[in-house]
Design goal:
The structure holds two protein chains of two kinds. Chain A has helices spanning about 1-15, 30-40, 40-45, 65-75, 95-100, 115-120, 140-150, 165-175, 190-195, 200-205, 220-235, 255-260, 290-295, 310-315, 340, 345-355; strands at about 25, 50-55, 80-85, 105-110, 125-130, 155-160, 185-190, 210-215, 240, 265-270, 275-285. Chain A is an alpha/beta fold. Chain A has a domain at about 65-165 and about 250-295: Rossmann fold (3-Layer(aba) Sandwich). In chain A, helix 2 packs parallel to helix 16 (about 345-355) and helix 7 crosses helix 12. Chain A is globular and about 65 Å long. The relative contact order of chain A is 0.17. By secondary structure, chain B is of the alpha+beta class. Chain B folds into three domains: about 1-45, no CATH class; about 50-160, PurM-like, N-terminal domain (60s Ribosomal Protein L30, Chain: A), CATH 3.30.1330.10; about 170-330, Phosphoribosyl-aminoimidazole Synthetase, Chain A, domain 2 (Alpha-Beta Complex), CATH 3.90.650. Chain B is built from eight helices and 14 strands. A seven-stranded mixed β-sheet of chain B has the order 9-11-8-12-10-13-14, with helices on both faces. In chain B, helix 2 (about 80-90) packs parallel to helix 3. Chain B is globular. The two termini of chain B are about 30 Å apart. Classes of the chains: A alpha/beta, B alpha+beta. Chains A and B meet through helix 3, helix 5, helix 6 and helix 16 of A and strand 14 of B.
């Protein structure tokens, strides 16, 4: 492996000399962001290859008003909230779920939505709400659990739906926001394991940019950088699968069908970006009785982003965490201000945890 | 905001949160900014695993620990074994030989006697192994639902051999960093012992290490500092010691032993084994000329067979821990941030 890596790195360095200017490669998956940080991939790349972290962390793109609404929901009588751990510490405008828990709200962390359904079945006097968050990777799990709840006539189980889809967001970044200067995409391996590669074909077909569906080891990421480099130099952009271990062109048909049975496309609000058409999944009318927002009639809360927080620009790749005036000062993983610092997959958290030392070394930023 | 003693001491949370008890940064805030305001003194404020006290001309180590692990029985141990090992190991970190323990139970009404007997049996087995008695104790029972089954507190005293001083302040450049085996086994064992978890078969490393440490100290090797890598894992011990000694440490990813299954579960759950708790692992800082002898002695003990040098102290005045990754890059090993894990000790 080390031999392969060294060979790939030297090939990247060799080819990079032929680049006329700096190229910007965007990854749109939190697991990539963390792997790049943790393994110090930037240290291995020449200075004219710039890795930018896009909106790849579902927690980070969840609106602050949604957090406030969930906190309000958690204070209602008999409600029990189940959530993945990352959501607990995301700051709403006043508090977090983590702090809300200390005041007596029933908030439980789970690793799978099945735990929440089981709890609902065992506790019929409680109203159990699962915070359904994530991209195409977690949406099939939510869909399966909803179908299961329907089949078993469970009427005290709900989801607070925050699901989003990745291809529409990438389309938006390429279509609307030309100033970003993105030269290629490192596409999300886990998402594509479900969706397949086809929904990302537009990156090369319409926008003439390389797109490589990538695995998560350092070698995977470096190999994808090399593939992108070759495509750019030969002016032959394509959407290709590097992560052949898990991704097929057509994706996971069973999982896709599950999503399509339970959800339909809808526009969705992405924190820091705004409304993106067709980038959300809403429950089909048949499953509306599982929709916590409708059933509990949660008021829409209008809240402002925290002052000076640059998460929006960081999510778009316009700024790096070091450029934010709050980074590593007022905003740290222990006391996060914005969502990019709190989520374990957030860009700021990755930079804080793994790359603080390169802060004074602009070449490695 | 509570302000006592003076205006500079502040504790910013109006409620106690789970993270105030996880051994990470928030626990530090609670201890330094609230508890020390009322109870601080020169010994307590050293924040060592054991307080080393001078009584006449003798030095004794004194420590206390409470155990609230959930579930109370897990693969490779239970709350009883844990409560004895935890306190024994804390005493050993100061170089002391454990002599006597105290034991307090807080039990929920309705708790099964046979489960209590099972806990006592596993306590006895550890105590027999190290020949340390429980000499005083206390039992309280509270109403149903007022605690979760059973909580245990143990305290212990030990004798520090004359002339011996083990402290992170003694850490020197070029010291070798040694650990007595694979990391993250305890945390992952407890996590996967929960209901509804698909993974099984990870055994906790929970073990009494006092005899192993006595054996190493007897060789007269230059051992500068010892700490058991419990909550917050190996990364937390290294960070604490780097901060206290004000030296930079370097460790090597490929040298750090992680059980393959544990590694796979960590990958799957997005956890980093460096930050996961151990209950049978000591980190030793050793003079480089004695490192091989210490390693050989550790390997002779059943709890040290997989001991290995994982890094060294750099001659740089900076409190930071750097890990050389398998692909040759440098990664900061940062302080521990609260992970959302179940109660592990």
């Amino acid at each position: 492996m080390t031999v392969n890596i060294n060979k790939t790195i030297s090939e990247i360095k060799h080819l990079s000399r032929k680049l006329p200017s700096v190229i910007n490669l965007m990854e749109v998956c939190g697991t990539h962001t963390m792997s790049i940080g943790k393994n110090g991939i930037r240290q291995l790349l020449p200075e004219n290859i710039n890795l930018i972290s896009g909106p790849g962390c579902p927690v980070c793109v969840t609106g602050i008003n949604e957090i406030d609404q969930i906190i309000e929901l958690s204070s209602l009588k008999d409600i029990v909230i189940f959530t993945f751990g990352d959501m607990l510490k995301v700051p709403g405008s006043k508090t977090t779920l983590f702090r809300q828990k200390a005041t007596g709200s029933a908030i439980k962390m789970c690793y799978s939505p099945n735990e929440s359904l089981k709890y609902a079945m065992d506790n019929p006097d409680k109203k159990v709400v699962f915070l359904a968050i994530g991209f195409e990777t977690t949406a099939p799990l939510t869909a399966a659990v909803i179908k299961n709840a329907e089949k078993n006539n469970i009427n005290n189980f709900y989801i607070y739906n925050l699901h989003k889809t990745v291809p529409s967001a990438v389309f938006f970044l390429l279509d609307k926001d030309k100033k970003l200067n993105l030269d290629a995409f490192i596409c999300p391996g886990h998402v594509c394991a479900i969706t397949g590669s086809r929904p990302f074909d537009f990156i090369s077909d319409k926008f003439k940019k390389p797109a490589v569906i990538t695995g998560f080891t350092p070698y995977d990421i470096l190999e994808s950088v090399l593939i992108i480099l070759k495509q750019i130099l030969s002016d032959n952009p394509e959407t290709v699968i590097q992560y052949t271990l898990a991704v097929r062109e057509e994706g996971n048909i069973f999982a896709r069908n599950l999503i399509n049975e339970v959800f339909e496309n809808q526009s969705s609000y992405w924190r820091g970006i705004g409304i993106i058409e067709d980038s959300g999944l809403s429950l089909k009318s048949r499953y509306m009785s599982f929709n916590a927002k409708k059933v509990f009639n949660i008021n829409t809360i209008d809240t402002k982003e925290p002052r000076y927080c640059d998460c929006g620009k960081i999510l778009l790749g316009e700024k790096k965490p070091f450029d934010c005036r709050l980074f590593a000062g007022k905003c740290t993983p222990e006391n996060p201000v914005g969502p990019c610092m709190v989520s374990s997959e957030g860009t700021c958290a990755a930079y804080y945890k793994y790359e603080r030392l390169s802060k004074n070394d602009p070449g490695k930023r | 905001m509570i302000q006592v003693k003076d205006n500079t001491s502040k504790f910013n949370d109006d409620q106690i949160l789970i993270s105030h008890g996880d051994g990470g940064a928030k626990t530090g805030e609670l201890i330094k900014n609230l508890i020390f305001n009322f109870l601080g003194n020169s010994i307590l404020e050293k924040m060592e695993d054991s307080a080393v006290l001078k009584i006449n001309s003798d030095k004794i180590a004194f420590t206390t620990d409470s155990f609230v692990v959930k579930p109370i029985f897990f693969s490779g141990g239970d709350i009883g074994k844990l409560s004895i090992c935890g306190t024994l190991n804390d005493i050993s970190c100061s170089g002391a030989k454990p002599l006597y323990l105290s034991l307090s139970f807080i039990i929920e009404e309705g708790f099964q006697t046979k489960e209590l007997a099972k806990i006592l049996k596993s306590m006895k087995s550890v105590l027999d192994e190290v020949s340390v008695p429980v000499v005083t104790g206390d039992t309280k029972v509270v109403e149903k639902n007022n605690i979760d089954k059973i909580f245990i507190n143990t305290s212990g005293v030990g004798a520090v051999p004359p002339g011996l001083e083990i402290s992170p302040l003694n850490i020197k450049p070029k010291d070798k960093i040694i650990i007595n085996g694979s990391i993250a086994d305890h945390g992952i064992s407890v996590l996967t012992s929960r209901e509804n978890f698909g993974f099984k078969g990870i055994k906790s490393d929970c073990a009494p290490l006092s005899i192993m440490i006595e054996e190493v100290l007897k060789t007269g090797s230059g051992i500068h500092a010892i700490r058991d890598a419990t909550r917050g894992g190996l990364a937390s011990v290294l960070n604490e010691f780097s901060e206290i000694s004000n030296y930079q440490f370097k460790i090597y990813e490929e040298l750090i032993p992680v059980n393959k299954k544990v590694y796979a579960i960590c990958e799957f759950l997005g956890l980093d084994p460096l930050y996961i708790a151990n209950e049978g692992k000591m980190v030793l800082f050793v003079d480089p000329k004695d490192a091989n002898q210490v390693l050989a002695t550790l390997k002779n003990n059943r709890y040290g067979r997989n001991s290995v040098i994982i890094g060294e102290v750099e001659n740089t005045r900076d409190s930071v821990v750097i890990m050389k990754t398998k692909i040759g890059t440098n990664r900061i090993i940062d302080r521990f941030y609260s992970e959302q894990l179940p109660r592990i000790c």
